[in-house]
Amino acid sequence: MSRESFHRALKTIHARHDFAILESEKRQDEVEAVIPQIRNLRKTLTSTCEQVTRAVFNKQEDVQTAIRRIKEENLFAQSEIERLLNEHGYPQNYLEPHFHCSACGDTGYTGSIPCDCLKDLEAQYNVEEFNADNYITITDFDSFKLSYYQGEAFARMEQVYRFCRNYADTFSLHSSGILMMGGVGLGKTHLSLAIAAEVMKKGYSALYVSAPELFRKLQNEYYGKGGDTDTMDVLMRANLVIIDDLGAELGNQFNTASFYNIVNARQNLERPIIINTNLNLKEIEQRYSQRTLSRLSVYPCLKFAGTDVRQLKLREAYGL
Description:
Layout: H1 3-34, H2 37-46, H3 48-57, H4 63-87, E1 109-110, E2 113-114, H5 116-131, H6 151-169, E3 178-181, H7 188-201, E4 206-210, H8 211-222, H9 231-237, E5 240-246, H10 253-268, E6 273-277, H11 281-288, H12 290-296, E7 301-303, H13 309-317
Parallel strand pairs: 3-6, 3-7, 4-5, 5-6
Antiparallel strand pairs: 1-2
């Protein structure tokens, strides 16, 4: 994990805690202005330790008697506060801080153990770091033009487009992965990033990375050159992972094994992954093994068709 992401996540959670306390104090001032009796009742609740210490120090009564008496007073004060709130139309928990995470009270820890909310937020920030250098947030479905495809290619790409839009619209953590196949410049990257943009609007995390960059990061970390980021952990925690240009990386045993491990682990976790490649099924089997192809075969396979759209746009721009 990145230290920067961890500290950023912890800072965010502490800010949530401070905000919840501040909002609670505002509600207390509001209610006490309407129901003045509540001020003294709340003072009773907040002075428990002081009361016990005073009773014991002054030897007015023994410790157990003092604790029992103060407990009864607190229970009475709590019931009175609840009664008064109810009479004036306030929810029972109106005066309590409304923390974002009930498990840790927006501290980031349950005891000495990092809370899931801290881990999830750290994972989200790690994904954002991964995406910092790409254009994941500026590609959408509206900018994908079917007019660049003709004849049979148009019919096929219209189906591909509709599939991708529906996938994005209905995306959940239980969505299937997708295998996008086809030649250079046919729209695989565009549509996968359009999916990512829609998924992120729904509050999910989507990680986009090219295969050459991904395997370079993994190999650097394997040999101790990757800093403090655990790329495999980030890949497993992201809600959606998009690996672009599979097959453009160097062909070696490390990359082959890493790719299988990524696909296998994501499937075991039931987390979706989108793979974009210029390779066909036979080439995938030859390069990554029959076992890897078997894993990928459970995903819908979208076969892209047409002429390199980037070349068409270039000719269009220069009037060729």
